[in-house]
Design goal:
Blueprint (H helix, E strand, L loop, with lengths): L2 H33 L12 H8 L9 E5 L7 H7 L5 E6 L2 H10 L5 E5 L5 H7 L5 E6 L10 H12 E11 L3 H7 L4 E7 L6 E7 L5
Parallel strand pairs: 1-2, 1-4, 2-3, 4-5
Antiparallel strand pairs: 5-7, 6-7
InterPro entries: SAM-dependent_MTases_sf
Protein name: Methyltransferase
Keywords: Methyltransferase, Transferase
């Protein structure tokens, strides 16, 4: 086998691995959507534009604990880990064991913890990991389609777990989440990201230090 032929084989093998990983990820994401459509915000993962804009206001130097609800196949996980302090903690919570199993296999960073459970139990989950609160909580959960009572419970628990100076980061296709947030967060910044499928509403509910 010549050098050029060897390079071609390696290139094709690498491409196949990347393709298998990509389609495997999409397959898991789509299966999770089919199993629990009311708990998954979108059939397509968020765009890099949404990720960048959503995470922009985070003060990463002071962020010790970052929590995400409904991580799916981890679209936000690596971007968060790339920005998070070396001594920080990322806790992701999902009700679908399919997603949790996938995430545990694909993220080996010691700062990463995937939990099968409800976002409404975030206070207990964070405490179980040795922390008295979280600095930021990110959510892509579809508040408009969650079962009755779940949205308000999640909003309250989130406010309770966030430390003063932190924020609840929410991206949605509708403004329904803002209604639940406004019951607890006095200051809510809003944004919009067109380059996403579908275009989405962005909200940052701040827990000011005097609250």
């Amino acid at each position: 086998m010549t050098g050029h032929q060897g390079f071609g084989v390696i290139e094709r093998t690498s491409w196949r691995k990347r393709a298998a990983r990509l389609f495997g990820q999409w397959g898991v994401f789509f299966r999770g959507f089919v199993e629990e459509p009311r708990m998954v915000g979108s059939i397509i993962p968020s765009s890099r534009f949404t990720i960048r804009k959503m995470l922009a206001p985070v003060d990463w130097e002071r962020c010790e604990v970052f929590v995400e609800y409904g991580p799916g196949v981890g679209t936000f996980c690596q971007p968060v880990l790339d920005r998070l302090r070396r001594d920080g903690t990322l806790i992701v919570i999902d009700t679908n064991p399919l997603y949790i199993d996938y995430l545990k296999k694909h993220f080996t960073d010691s700062r990463f913890h995937a939990v099968h459970g409800s976002a409404a139990d975030v206070v207990d989950i964070v405490e179980a990991h040795g922390h008295d609160g979280a600095d930021y909580v990110l959510s892509g959960l579809p508040f408009s389609t969650l079962p009755d009572g779940v949205g308000p419970a999640i909003a309250k628990s989130t406010y309770d777990v966030i430390r003063p100076g932190g924020a609840f980061l929410v991206y949605q296709f509708s403004a329904k989440a803002r209604e639940f947030m406004a019951r607890h967060f006095k200051r809510i910044d809003s944004g919009f990201e067109f380059w996403n499928v579908l275009p989405c509403q962005l909200f940052w509910g701040w827990k000011d230090r005097e609250d």
